[in-house]
Design goal:
It contains seven helices and no strands. It is mainly alpha-helical and 154 residues long.
Length: 154
């Protein structure tokens, strides 16, 4: 909340304390978190934004790199962050969230995914109805007996 109030140096103190709280976890405990649990990575990203907004760009770049080194953040972009802001927030809260997005940009977070990047998303052989998700870079593999399968089904 302190970063939203523009009290970046105080936010840094608390976010750094949050990072220290995770230092006691073993690598196994970190790896065994639920797939949706991105608290560590989100704390690091928010800390990177706070560093950037406070003018500590070297610290911001290093912290963002640490956050983005996790596979859980492979599709995190400024656009994803902005799209996650609930529409029911009032204009003041939207401006606060956009300020954090600006901090993420200053820290070096990309605005959108690289369309040529390989996110190791397997092709399912059909078009997916999804937005802001990684796209497969190759078509699905075709079985060697595809012609007999096709003739049997048509």
């Amino acid at each position: 909340m302190l970063i939203m109030l523009g009290r970046d140096n105080e936010a840094i103190d608390w976010l750094e304390e949050g990072i220290r709280a995770y230092k006691g976890l073993t690598p196994t405990q970190i790896a065994e978190r639920e797939t949706w649990d991105t608290v560590i990575e989100d704390t690091k990203a928010t800390l990177a934004a706070a560093y950037a907004l406070a003018g500590r760009l070297d610290d911001a770049h290093m912290m963002l790199a640490s956050a983005m080194s996790s596979d859980r953040m492979m599709d995190f972009t400024v656009r994803v962050f902005l799209n996650s802001i609930p529409v029911y927030f009032d204009e003041h809260r939207h401006q606060q969230e956009k300020r954090i997005a600006e901090g993420l940009r200053r820290a070096g977070l990309r605005d959108h995914l690289d369309e040529r990047a390989d996110f190791h998303a397997a092709s399912a052989g059909y078009l997916r109805d999804a937005v802001n998700t990684p796209t497969p870079t190759a078509p699905p593999s075709i079985p060697s007996n595809w012609w007999s399968c096709f003739r049997a089904n048509h």
